[in-house]
């Protein structure tokens, strides 16, 4: 991967490579757009197979954060960070070293927790920098509000694609039973939906079966189930040429980031198969809304009200795609870019006034 070619193509402003000899920290912070304010994006810790793979993930995730903030109506930019490490090698010293790199950006980048980081890790990073959120876990914390946004997104998608069905009549395949997946299963169960769940951890799926009456399926079975909604709630890249040939669900609506292995190719295939796709950075914005609310001092009710707007935003995207004869992926990008341009113009006018 040519670094400068990749960052230029995707429109990034800054990429910081972080290395600390003492703790063996290797991390990448990618700032896609800070034109509307600090770039916000959580930090993911993952044992990437290569540094190239880590960079690709950071670039795609940070660009998604820019669009996520815009579609959620939040006046911040987009960024993301990845730490290249096995979870068992994570130490407080490593996290503090990483926090010092975040602090060196003087507020251009504000981070929080993602895969393999927990609230306690965020509090460890907070020891060395104030540019971190997700400490107070307002409104139940980012996982709870992310799940709520995905649930409302499923409700919107069902209303648009399957208007003859109520939520208590749908079947949902949930791929991934982590914090967000578990909370999503709870909301679906409360709505009366039939749930099928898979995860690499048998313990997690057994818990969801016990709590919410879910049917456990093997990871390779989840794609071909005869369901109404496929909800990817694990890692990205699960929507690809192989899985799309297996999918029977007319709706894809889940919390995972970077769900599409190839954005252009796979949105085209979904369109040909009449699958309604809920763009990941729109439907999973609840976590960003949560930590932004913490940053500005919003109360729980204000945070939940803003998360609830995900429902309306998705309907706007669905109708925009239909009206303009484009995919929902392209419609969400256009909506985000329109909102970013409008916000930047307003900011410029305010400066000159």
Structure write-up:
With 353 residues, this protein is α/β, with parallel strands linked by helices. The chain is built from 13 helices and 12 strands. The chain has helices spanning 3-10, 51-71, 92-104, 119-125, 142-161, 179-191, 202-212, 241-246, 263-272, 280-283, 286-296, 300-324, 328-352, and strands at residues 14-20, 25-33, 39-40, 43-46, 77-84, 109-110, 171-175, 194-198, 215-216, 229-232, 251-252, 276-277. Helix 11 packs across helix 12 (300-324). The protein is globular and about 55 Å long. The N and C termini lie far apart (44 Å). The model has no long low-confidence stretch (mean pLDDT 92).
The computed structural class is: alpha/beta
Largest sheet: 6 strands, mixed
What helical percentage do the residues reach? 40-55%
Averaged pLDDT: 92
Count of helix runs: 13
Binned strand content: 5-15%
Overall 3D form: globular
Strand tally: 12
Report the uncertain regions.
none
Secondary-structure element sequence?
Answer: HEEEEHEHEHHEHEHEEHEHEHHHH
Quaternary structure annotation? single chain
Provide a quick synopsis of the model:
This protein is of the alpha/beta class and 353 residues long.
């Amino acid at each position: 991967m040519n670094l400068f070619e990749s960052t230029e193509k995707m429109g990034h402003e800054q990429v910081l490579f972080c290395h600390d000899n003492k703790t063996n920290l290797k991390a990448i912070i990618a700032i896609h757009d800070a034109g509307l304010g600090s770039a916000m994006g959580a930090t993911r810790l993952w044992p990437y197979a290569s540094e190239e793979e880590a960079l690709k993930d950071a670039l795609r995730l940070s660009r998604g954060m820019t669009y996520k903030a815009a579609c959620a109506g939040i006046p911040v930019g987009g960024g993301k960070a990845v730490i290249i490490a096995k979870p068992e090698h994570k130490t407080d010293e490593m996290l503090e070293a990483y926090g010092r790199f975040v602090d060196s950006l003087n507020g251009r980048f504000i981070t929080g927790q993602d895969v393999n980081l927990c609230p306690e890790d965020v509090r460890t990073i907070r020891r060395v920098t104030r540019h971190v959120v997700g400490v107070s876990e307002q409104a139940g914390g980012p996982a709870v509000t992310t799940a709520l946004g995905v649930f409302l997104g499923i409700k919107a998608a069902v209303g648009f694609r399957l208007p003859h069905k109520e939520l208590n009549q749908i079947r949902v395949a949930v791929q991934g039973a982590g914090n967000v997946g578990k909370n999503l299963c709870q909301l679906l169960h409360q709505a009366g939906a039939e749930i099928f769940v898979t995860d690499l951890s048998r313990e997690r799926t057994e818990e969801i079966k016990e709590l919410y009456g879910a049917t456990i399926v093997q990871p390779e079975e989840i794609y071909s189930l005869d369901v109404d909604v496929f909800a990817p709630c694990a890692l990205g890249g699960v929507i690809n040429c192989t899985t799309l040939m297996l999918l029977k669900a007319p709706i894809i609506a889940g919390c995972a980031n970077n769900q599409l292995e190839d954005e252009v190719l796979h949105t085209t295939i979904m369109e040909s198969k009449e699958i309604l796709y809920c763009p990941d950075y729109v439907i999973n914005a609840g976590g960003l809304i949560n930590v932004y609310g913490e940053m500005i001092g919003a109360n729980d009710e204000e945070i939940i009200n803003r998360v609830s707007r995900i429902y309306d935003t998705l309907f706007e995207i669905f109708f925009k795609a239909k009206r303009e004869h484009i995919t929902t992926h392209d419609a969400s990008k256009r909506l985000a870019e329109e909102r970013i341009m409008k916000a930047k113009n307003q900011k410029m006018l305010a400066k000159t006034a």
